[in-house]
Amino acid sequence: MIDSRAIIEPGAEIGEEVTVGPYSIISADTSIGDRTWIGPHVVISGHTRIGRANKIYQFSSIGEAPQHLGYDGEDTVVEIGDENIVREYTTINRGTLEGGGVTRLGDSNFLMAYVHIAHDCVIGSHTIFANCASLAGHVTVSDYAILGGFTLVHQFCRIGAHSITGIGCVCLQDVPPFTIAAGNRAQPHGINVKGLRRRNFEEADIIALKRAYKTLYRSEMPLKKARERMEQDNGDHPVVRELIQFLDSSDRGMIR
Fold first, then answer.
1. Per-residue DSSP letter, 66
2. How far is the CA of 24 from the CAs of 32, 38, 93, 148, in angstroms?
3. Which of 47, 68, 116, 119 is catalytic?
4. Distance CA 73, CA 153 (A)
């Protein structure tokens, strides 16, 4: 199932039932899990570990050196989980020593064409990156987040779980979980109600999040007071607690 025109360097670990298309190149230090499909003209380099049943389409580049002036050839890593779809011309760069050395992608993610994942990014599971969405270095994207086409995320920002960004959104600060963000620069536009219902969140969760959103974004309270009010009103509700914990751990600040 490996095309005779593909180049597999000695030392590469290839699992069972792996398909590799013509003119793809897999370097010596990579590991490819069982039942992964790799199309033509794909380059997988560096210390890259790819799990089971992934689909990687043509002209993608995974594990190449980071676009970082301080990088000096260190043996850093890309780790990719299981059942991801990586479409054409996607680039995923390996980590840097100063960023922990690993760029990580979880399970069951869908990266559409021309997506860029820079060094030291950490992507959860079940995310969707529409065409040309791009992350700078050290970005974290949590589970079930959806990035609209041409979304750009500044380095060290976080995109919270179950959030969604609009087309051409420019995120210069953290996007809280469960929210809709749009614009350049990104601004909040409510709770991602459709997405939450699609994932079988209880109506009580959605009501609690709407109440917290109104406190956070429409009350005109300073952030500290808004956080205190959220704690008082619904601080014991799990989804509101998750939102509060996200705010408390923000280094870059959040869109507001």
1. P
2. 13, 8, 17, 29
3. 119
4. 26
119 is catalytic: yes
What is the edge-to-edge ordering of all strands in the sheet holding 179-182? 19-20, 37-38, 55-56, 85-86, 110-111, 128-129, 146-147, 164-165, 179-182, 187-191
- Ranges of the chain with pLDDT below 50: none
The conformational region for residue 140 under phi > 0 = left, psi -120 to 50 = alpha, else beta, is beta
**Domain-wise residue ranges, the chain:** 7-138, 197-248
Can you give the pLDDT at residue 234? Answer: 83
- Whether pTM > 0.90 for this model: the answer is yes
pLDDT of residue 236: 87
Active-site residue identified among 29, 120, 174, 205: 120
Of 46, 99, 124, 137, which residue is the catalytic one?
137
Residues 7-138, CATH architecture: 3 Solenoid (2.160)
Q: Is 82 a catalytic residue?
A: no
Q: Which helix (H) or strand (E) holds 213?
A: helix 203-213
Q: Compute the distance between CA of residue 199 and CA of residue 205 in angstroms, rounded to an integer.
A: 12
Packing angle of the helix pair 238-248, 223-234 (nearest 10 deg):
160
Kindly report, residue by residue over 222-237, the tens digit of the pLDDT: 999 999 999 998 888 9
Active site residue 120: yes
Q: What is the pLDDT of residue 235?
A: 81
The whole-angstrom separation of Cα 219 and Cα 89 is 44
